[in-house]
Amino acid sequence: MINPLIKAIDEILPQTQCTKCGYDNCLSYANAIVNDKESINRCPPGGDHTIKKISKILNKEFIALDSSRGSPEIFNVASIDEEKCIGCTICIAECPTDAILGANKRMHIIITDYCTGCGLCVDKCPVSCINLENINRKWTKKHADLSRSRYNNKLIRMKKNFQQQSLMKNKLLKD
Protein backbone atom coordinates (compact mmCIF):
# COMPACT_ATOMS: atom_id res chain seq x y z
CA MET A 1 0.00 0.00 0.00
CA ILE A 2 1.42 3.35 -1.03
CA ASN A 3 1.70 6.11 1.56
CA PRO A 4 -1.22 8.54 0.98
CA LEU A 5 1.14 11.53 1.15
CA ILE A 6 3.40 10.04 -1.54
CA LYS A 7 0.33 9.27 -3.65
CA ALA A 8 -0.95 12.85 -3.26
CA ILE A 9 2.39 14.32 -4.37
CA ASP A 10 2.68 11.86 -7.25
CA GLU A 11 -0.78 12.96 -8.40
CA ILE A 12 0.46 16.56 -8.59
CA LEU A 13 3.63 15.80 -10.55
CA PRO A 14 3.27 16.06 -14.36
CA GLN A 15 4.25 12.41 -15.00
CA THR A 16 6.63 13.19 -17.84
CA GLN A 17 9.08 10.67 -16.31
CA CYS A 18 11.84 12.94 -17.61
CA THR A 19 14.35 12.26 -14.77
CA LYS A 20 15.31 15.96 -14.63
CA CYS A 21 14.59 15.89 -10.89
CA GLY A 22 17.40 13.37 -10.49
CA TYR A 23 15.11 10.39 -9.90
CA ASP A 24 14.13 7.54 -12.21
CA ASN A 25 10.48 8.57 -12.35
CA CYS A 26 7.87 10.84 -10.80
CA LEU A 27 6.82 8.34 -8.13
CA SER A 28 10.43 7.93 -6.96
CA TYR A 29 10.72 11.70 -6.66
CA ALA A 30 7.44 11.88 -4.67
CA ASN A 31 8.76 9.13 -2.39
CA ALA A 32 12.04 11.02 -1.89
CA ILE A 33 10.18 14.21 -1.02
CA VAL A 34 8.22 12.44 1.71
CA ASN A 35 10.73 9.93 3.05
CA ASP A 36 14.11 11.47 2.34
CA LYS A 37 13.09 15.09 2.80
CA GLU A 38 14.15 15.88 -0.76
CA SER A 39 13.61 19.42 -1.95
CA ILE A 40 10.20 20.13 -3.48
CA ASN A 41 11.59 22.32 -6.27
CA ARG A 42 13.31 19.84 -8.60
CA CYS A 43 10.62 19.34 -11.28
CA PRO A 44 11.15 21.64 -14.29
CA PRO A 45 8.09 20.40 -16.22
CA GLY A 46 5.92 21.11 -13.18
CA GLY A 47 7.48 24.51 -12.52
CA ASP A 48 6.30 26.87 -9.81
CA HIS A 49 2.68 25.73 -10.20
CA THR A 50 3.58 22.21 -9.02
CA ILE A 51 5.92 23.47 -6.31
CA LYS A 52 3.10 25.60 -4.87
CA LYS A 53 0.77 22.59 -4.75
CA ILE A 54 3.38 20.39 -3.07
CA SER A 55 4.27 23.11 -0.55
CA LYS A 56 0.58 23.40 0.35
CA ILE A 57 0.20 19.64 0.88
CA LEU A 58 3.33 19.50 3.03
CA ASN A 59 2.64 22.82 4.73
CA LYS A 60 6.06 24.07 3.64
CA GLU A 61 7.17 27.43 2.41
CA PHE A 62 7.23 27.87 -1.36
CA ILE A 63 10.72 27.88 -2.92
CA ALA A 64 11.41 28.70 -6.55
CA LEU A 65 12.37 26.04 -9.07
CA ASP A 66 15.95 24.79 -8.80
CA SER A 67 17.31 26.21 -12.04
CA SER A 68 20.15 23.67 -12.10
CA ARG A 69 17.48 21.07 -13.01
CA GLY A 70 16.30 23.06 -16.01
CA SER A 71 13.83 25.79 -16.69
CA PRO A 72 10.07 25.45 -16.72
CA GLU A 73 9.30 24.10 -20.12
CA ILE A 74 6.58 24.23 -22.65
CA PHE A 75 5.35 20.69 -23.15
CA ASN A 76 7.02 19.79 -26.41
CA VAL A 77 6.66 16.69 -28.54
CA ALA A 78 9.46 14.71 -30.14
CA SER A 79 9.66 14.39 -33.91
CA ILE A 80 11.92 12.20 -36.02
CA ASP A 81 13.70 13.35 -39.18
CA GLU A 82 12.94 10.48 -41.55
CA GLU A 83 15.99 11.21 -43.69
CA LYS A 84 18.38 10.72 -40.76
CA CYS A 85 16.74 7.87 -38.82
CA ILE A 86 18.75 4.63 -39.09
CA GLY A 87 16.28 2.48 -37.14
CA CYS A 88 18.65 1.72 -34.29
CA THR A 89 15.78 1.32 -31.74
CA ILE A 90 17.70 3.12 -28.97
CA CYS A 91 14.95 5.73 -28.73
CA ILE A 92 12.29 3.05 -28.39
CA ALA A 93 14.07 1.60 -25.36
CA GLU A 94 14.54 5.07 -23.82
CA CYS A 95 10.96 6.27 -24.20
CA PRO A 96 9.26 5.99 -20.80
CA THR A 97 5.76 5.90 -22.27
CA ASP A 98 6.21 3.75 -25.38
CA ALA A 99 5.44 6.75 -27.59
CA ILE A 100 7.88 5.62 -30.29
CA LEU A 101 7.07 2.86 -32.75
CA GLY A 102 9.43 1.24 -35.17
CA ALA A 103 11.49 -1.79 -35.98
CA ASN A 104 15.20 -2.47 -36.26
CA LYS A 105 16.67 -0.77 -39.34
CA ARG A 106 13.32 0.86 -40.13
CA MET A 107 12.30 4.47 -39.68
CA HIS A 108 10.51 5.13 -36.38
CA ILE A 109 7.53 7.34 -35.65
CA ILE A 110 6.35 9.27 -32.60
CA ILE A 111 2.79 8.89 -31.34
CA THR A 112 2.23 12.52 -30.40
CA ASP A 113 -0.57 11.83 -27.93
CA TYR A 114 1.72 9.57 -25.89
CA CYS A 115 4.88 11.69 -26.03
CA THR A 116 5.64 13.58 -22.80
CA GLY A 117 8.37 15.69 -24.37
CA CYS A 118 10.85 14.37 -21.80
CA GLY A 119 13.74 14.53 -24.27
CA LEU A 120 15.29 11.22 -23.19
CA CYS A 121 15.18 9.98 -26.78
CA VAL A 122 16.82 13.17 -28.05
CA ASP A 123 19.77 12.73 -25.71
CA LYS A 124 20.33 9.10 -26.72
CA CYS A 125 19.89 9.29 -30.49
CA PRO A 126 23.26 8.47 -32.09
CA VAL A 127 22.45 10.32 -35.33
CA SER A 128 20.65 13.35 -33.86
CA CYS A 129 17.49 12.72 -35.86
CA ILE A 130 15.08 13.52 -33.01
CA ASN A 131 14.05 17.03 -32.07
CA LEU A 132 11.57 18.50 -29.63
CA GLU A 133 8.93 20.73 -31.16
CA ASN A 134 6.55 23.15 -29.55
CA ILE A 135 3.01 22.32 -30.61
CA ASN A 136 1.44 24.71 -28.08
CA ARG A 137 0.12 21.81 -26.02
CA LYS A 138 -1.16 22.54 -22.55
CA TRP A 139 -0.33 19.62 -20.29
CA THR A 140 -3.41 18.45 -18.40
CA LYS A 141 -4.23 15.92 -15.70
CA LYS A 142 -5.55 13.70 -18.50
CA HIS A 143 -2.08 13.75 -20.12
CA ALA A 144 -0.43 13.03 -16.77
CA ASP A 145 -2.76 10.12 -16.00
CA LEU A 146 -2.21 8.60 -19.45
CA SER A 147 1.56 8.99 -19.12
CA ARG A 148 1.60 7.39 -15.67
CA SER A 149 -0.47 4.48 -16.96
CA ARG A 150 1.71 3.96 -20.04
CA TYR A 151 4.88 4.19 -17.95
CA ASN A 152 3.59 1.64 -15.44
CA ASN A 153 2.49 -0.69 -18.26
CA LYS A 154 5.96 -0.49 -19.79
CA LEU A 155 7.55 -1.38 -16.44
CA ILE A 156 5.23 -4.38 -16.08
CA ARG A 157 6.03 -5.54 -19.63
CA MET A 158 9.77 -5.14 -19.09
CA LYS A 159 9.63 -7.11 -15.83
CA LYS A 160 7.64 -9.86 -17.52
CA ASN A 161 10.11 -9.99 -20.44
CA PHE A 162 13.02 -10.17 -18.02
CA GLN A 163 11.38 -13.03 -16.11
CA GLN A 164 10.69 -14.91 -19.35
CA GLN A 165 14.27 -14.45 -20.51
CA SER A 166 15.56 -15.68 -17.15
CA LEU A 167 13.38 -18.78 -17.37
CA MET A 168 14.58 -19.51 -20.89
CA LYS A 169 18.20 -19.00 -19.85
CA ASN A 170 17.77 -21.37 -16.89
CA LYS A 171 16.14 -23.95 -19.13
CA LEU A 172 19.02 -23.75 -21.62
CA LEU A 173 21.55 -24.15 -18.82
CA LYS A 174 19.77 -27.28 -17.57
CA ASP A 175 19.67 -28.87 -21.05
TrEMBL record:
Keywords: 4Fe-4S, Electron transport, Iron, Iron-sulfur, Membrane, Metal-binding, Repeat, Translocase, Transport. Its cofactor is [4Fe-4S] cluster. Residues 1-60 form the 4Fe-4S domain. [4Fe-4S] cluster 2 binds at C85, C88, C91, C125. GO terms for molecular function: 4 iron, 4 sulfur cluster binding; electron transfer activity; metal ion binding. GO terms for biological process: electron transport chain. GO terms for cellular component: plasma membrane. InterPro entries: 4Fe-4S_dom, 4Fe4S_Fe-S-bd, 4Fe4S_Fe_S_CS, 4Fe4S_Ferredoxin_RnfB, Elect_transpt_cplx_RnfB/RsxB, RnfB/RsxB_Proteobac. NCBIfam families: rnfB (TIGR01944). This is Electron transport complex subunit RsxB. It comes from Candidatus Kinetoplastidibacterium kentomonadis.
